[in-house]
Amino acid sequence: MSAPEPSVGVLERFAAHLSSELGRSPHTVRGYLADVRSLLRDLDSRGHTPADLDVPLIRAWLSRARSTGASRSTVARRVAAVRALTRLLHREGVLATDPGPRLAAPSQQRSLPAVLDEEQAAAALEGFVPRSPVELRRHAVVELLYATGIRVAELCALDLDDLDRSRNTVRVLGKGGRERTVPVGVPALDALDAWTARGRPELAAGTSGSALLLGARGGRLGVRQAREDVHAHLRAAGLDSAPHGLRHSAATHLLNGGADLRSVQEFLGHSSPRSTQIYTHVSVDRLRSAYQQAHPRA
Predict the structure, then answer these.
(1) What is the DSSP letter of 216?
(2) Catalytic position from the list 13, 66, 244, 286
(3) Which residue in 59, 90, 175, 286 is the catalytic one?
(4) Which sequence spans correspond to the domains of the chain?
(5) For the Core-binding (CB) domain, which residue ranges apply (predicted)?
């Protein structure tokens, strides 16, 4: 009989598996590790090891999480984390069978994203004259997020050579290491030109490397600072929206302008069309408006 599997070894291998093999983001890795750490502590407190993992044990752990007030999204994330863990343990031979596929995640009650309308987006981006390096960066950050719909983490990871001025596109490395090419509008390109010509040289340092956007000390712009840039820029325009709201707004305005759902899915880097379908409420609103205006029996 093999010795009990040490939990610390499981956590280390699981972390490496998530990062190196699955290409999960640091945020996802932290969340999954916290979930699995909780599961392993629960197992240990009941005299079990990872080799004992089965559906009843996992369901009991999930049930205890729900009884302490865990949200549906938290439970769904825990299920995803455990599925990844049991798949790895089964592959390694620690588990004879993989119980993960038999675990059902709670359905998500997704709320409609808050978006800016076209007039609000224009108000946030037009008539602003950036002067300092920080203002030039803020303007470039907001323009690029709205123009491309990329995630804040994807924005911060951009390098100078990811921008292709000959094709007006930007190369983005998304979730799971998936690369996509996204078109960029002229206003965003102009804002980036202003940043690279007059803002970036002022902040550049030995730690800058090839990063497109830089923080105050010359290193690559961090996600937290990028979010603060967005909030500061939108507050100055009298608007209250989060950075992800610009991504939602970009997708919504594309659909509003007649883009098909499949194109928007590729634009956003969604692996499944289900993630993009949340934006179809815009098309329904447009259809309802057109119906009321044009149909004789509306």
Answers:
(1) T
(2) 244
(3) 175
(4) 7-102, 118-243
(5) 5-90
